[in-house]
Every structure is written in C-alpha cells, then in structure tokens.
C-alpha cells in the first residue's frame, strides 16, 4: 500500500507511548517478530499499543464469549483472550489456512488451546452458524464487508455488549476526496457512516493506530 499523506500519530509520540506501556508478554514479542519475518503484510498485526488496549478492554468487560473476525497471526486473539472468564471461549475466523496454522501454534503456546476455537473459511458463511450471544466482537477482516459483518453479528451481541472494528481511519484515506473510488476505503467510509447513524448502538471512533471504532449495543 502506498504511503498515506496523513500522519495519525507522530512516530516519536508512538515510541514514547510504547516505552511507557507495560511490556508485551514474551510469547507476543516473539509472535510479533515472527510475523515480520514470515508474512508479506506484517503491518496487519495489532501490535503492542493496540494489543494492550484490546487486552485491557477485555479485562474490564470480563467476557464469557468473544468473536474475532480475522485472526491473521493470532496477536489480537491472545490479547483479547486475556480477559476471558475461566470458562469463557473466543471464536476466531480466518480465511487463510496458512495463517490458521501460524496462529494456532502461538495460541497453544500462550496456554489458550482450550479457550480459543479456530474456524477456517469465509466469515460470511461461518458467522450465521455461531450461536452467541457474544460479549465482545472484534472485526479486522475484509474492509469491503465491514457493514455486512455488522449486520450479521449485531443480533448475536448481548444487550450492553461491545463491538470493536479495526482500521476505521484506513491510513487517513477516509478523508480523501476520491475515497469512493477505492473499494476498501469506500467500505470503511460506508461502515463508519452506517454505525454512526444506527439506532441500536452508540459509538466512539478512536484515532489509535489506524483507527478503532468502539461500539456499544444499547440495552
């Protein structure tokens, strides 16, 4: 992806923030390094700051059921699972079998084999088969389908439950005059508008990393 003309957070500020944030667990530090060595798009990784935010949100909510749409190498799944109740489960969906194999090793190493259920395939087909209700849903998958994921999952989120969507500023491209000409950017723009006007939720768009839309389903 080309460089964006927008700088969401100064690299110096981000480095300072990371330096003053609790260190990653050793398994996540190795996972991050391995992702940069072995994958073509390591920037898809949640990373230290965002990962810690997801971890803390999960620890505050203490979910019994989590759904993640888009596993990639498993970093965010491990972070989110940190807040699970002792009998809680995290379902994670990944379309790429190679990434499923990659992620499963680290998820098992993190001691989460009994709590993380991995699904391989198209999320559009898998989501309807999952019963819920979910306390947290994290979306980090095909940007063109964000609104469709929302519609598929909103009734499976408990009242008062949470949905977090990644990449909702999309490298600043949501501000581009020709945003509608790029399918992924158009998908994010449409999702942000849709969520902001949806009567069943309240939302907060955070300029963290590449944008996190935090959504609460009304009770």
Overall domain count: 1
Largest sheet: 7 strands, mixed
Q: Beta-sheet strand percentage?
A: 15-25%
Strand order of the largest sheet: 3-2-1-4-5-7-6
Briefly note the CATH topology name.
Answer: Rossmann fold
Q: Which value, in Å, is the CA radius of gyration?
A: 16 Å
Structural notes for this entry:
- There is one protein chain.
- 38% of the residues lie in helices and 20% in strands.
- With 219 residues, it is an alpha/beta fold.
- A 7-stranded mixed sheet has the order 3-2-1-4-5-7-6, with helices on both faces.
- Helix 4 (75-81) links the parallel strand 1 and strand 2.
- Helix 3 (47-61) packs parallel to helix 4 (75-81).
- The longest helix has 15 residues, at 47-61.
- The radius of gyration is 16 Å and the shape is globular.
List the helices and strands and how they pair.
Layout: H1 11-19, H2 26-38, H3 47-61, E1 65-69, H4 75-81, E2 89-94, H5 97-109, E3 116-120, H6 123-126, E4 134-139, H7 146-153, E5 157-166, H8 183-196, E6 201-206, E7 212-217
Parallel strand pairs: 1-2, 1-4, 2-3, 4-5
Antiparallel strand pairs: 5-7, 6-7
Helix pairs in contact: 3-4
